[in-house]
Every structure is written in C-alpha cells, then in structure tokens.
C-alpha cells in the first residue's frame, strides 16, 4: 500500500476570484484537485458529527490507516475542527478528551453552547434551517441576519476552539477550511497562506448562523461553511485520483431540503466529483437524529458508532487509498 503520509502536499492556488485570495467559486469543472492522489473531505454536523468523525478516524489510524496523510484535507464546520486535529497529529488525544467530556455533558456543552437564544439569534437560525436552496440572495440574507444577531462575541468561540485544538498554528499546507462571507455570500477557502489564525479559521467554518457570531477573517466576517449549498465542498478535490468523503447525510432522509441543502444536492455533488475523474469513498453515520446534533448527551453513541463503522470499513478503505 502507498502510505498516505508519504505523499507530497499541495495547497489550493491560483483559483481565487478575490483580491484577498479567499473567495473561491464552487466549480467542479475547474478541477481544483487535479494532480493530487488522495484527498479527504470532512463535512459538517455539530458536536455529534465531531464525535463520530473523531472515533471513526482514530479507529482507522489504530489499524494503520491514516487519512491525515492526504495531500489535501478539506474541513467544513464540524469537519474543520476534526481536520485541524488530524493534521496537527492530535487525533488520539482529542478522542480521549471527547470520550471523557461525553460523560460530563455540562463541560462539553460549555465548548459549544446551544441553549436559550435571543429573538435575533433565533431569527437567523430559523432562516438558515428553513433554507431549501443556496441562491446567492438567500445566502446573503442568512449572513445579514447572522451579523445582526446578538450571539456571543466572536472571541468567545475562537477561544473555545483553541481549547479543543490546543494549537494556534497551521499544522500543514494540506489543511483547507471553508466558510462563507456573511456580507457577500461568497464561499471562502482559508489555508496556511491566509493571514488568519487557525482558531479563527476553524471558528468561522463552524459559526452556525444565530448560534455563533461570524468570525473576522481579514476584512471579512465569515460564517459556517455549510451555508453554501454544500456541507462537504468536494469541488475543492475534483480531479483528485481518490477522494474519501465523510458526510453527515446522503440526503435521503431530507427530501424537503434545509440549511441551504436542496433535495438531491448531495447525490448531484458526488456525481460531479466522479465525473471529474475522481474515485470516491463515501461514508455517513449509520443513523442520525438531526434534533440532537448539538446535544452533548448524544456524544457517547456517536463515538461508539464511529468506531464500529471504522472497523467494518477498514479493509475496503485500506484497498481504496492504496
């Protein structure tokens, strides 16, 4: 097997449409991943999906399958936290901490509070949750509501992210986090080349409208990367030989759409990724309760599920990334 950690890294470059180099159009035809052998996309899904991904990836690593060695690792929302953790080599440490915190929900909840919201917070969250498409005007309206919401100060979330990551330095050029400019609605991609701290980039990617305030990234104020019509942003890997995608859902359980994800959009995105020439290994949790994504008490079940699925997938995934 060609071990992933031995592969050369190559950052996204030459594709930005903005002066600050952050705004990157969603475009599968651009084949942003061309020339790469292995890419990984880690999608969004709250505390629940952080726990599932950490357990899944940690179990794989214990069996000799290290996806953190991919040439490009794209993290969105919850996936940006996990992507930063694995690129920094802190996977085992973080899984241990999440396992302990999962037994003390109050402590885990303090890192990602999701209790009572002000009316302005609830308004922004409601617009986001009800959004069944990703038209630019709708994305901008969500962003403007997020900017107006009286959510905790941006520094609060950035500090909490720092506690999880235990690092403020970019771990590698392979790490690419996604977010959305709350004012313009542009999809932004933040890498080690950007003038942004790692904690800010991850906090921006995870800033769910209404729950958290948009984060300052340069002169922008950026919100959750999932407010874009995609929770996985696989276009950033289009053209890559082999792509592993960990997604909260395959879309089959959400026929009406929501959170800017239109019905059938996940299937269409994967079809476009395959059409770009990429082989795809796609995995979702066995089951998901969408009402408990930010519920700390759901973490133990997510951890157990992730480990179980990783053990079942290990040999097929080993062969896939070879």
TrEMBL record:
Annotated PROSITE patterns: PNPLA
Record-linked Gene3D superfamilies: Cytosolic phospholipase A2 catalytic domain
Keywords associated with the record: Lipid metabolism
Alphabetized Pfam families for the sequence: Patatin
Any single GO BP term: lipid metabolic process
Keyword Repeat on entry: no
Domain PNPLA per the UniProt entry, residue ranges: 41-238
InterPro entries: Acyl_Trfase/lysoPLipase, PNPLA_dom
Keyword Lipid metabolism in record: yes
Full protein name: Unannotated protein
The species this protein was found in: freshwater metagenome
